[in-house]
Design brief:
single chain, 173 residues, mainly alpha
Length: 173
Amino acid sequence: MTVELLKCVLYFALIGVSGFLLGRLLPKGLFKWDRPPFRLLQWERQGAVYVSLGIRRWKERLPDMSVILPKLMPSKKMPKAATSSQLELMIQETCVAEWIHGLLCIAGFGCVLIWKGMWGWLISIIYCLCNVPFILIQRYNRPKLLHILKRVQAKESVHEKCDRLELQYGTGA
């Protein structure tokens, strides 16, 4: 039993590192937040369903790869004067993280092949359940970031129109 447990732990570490590297290497442009599976669903009520799960209380207690490996992961902290391109990248990062944790949930069941029987199933289910909160956090953060993105895009649009008018008519000085 202990040999199988050790093999499963090593397997989980291997797929975790592989998932992390895959998430860093994949082009972020592949992840569209307005398309399935990342698009917000009606029943999520713009993230309100996650608030009802008390996510605000526990999300900060979970490990954050941007804190653990700051040189390899972009910070999750919102810049004071975020641009629309920075926000779009942050939103894409939520999609990447959600996708990777979903893959880890599925790949975790490979442990059933390593540790035959009930214990292999049990540890695989536990591993899957441990990844679910990270998926929920991404689904919780995305609507907030999309709301901020819309506001920033509206501001940038106004500034762009003013700049075009200034170029067209001069400053009047």
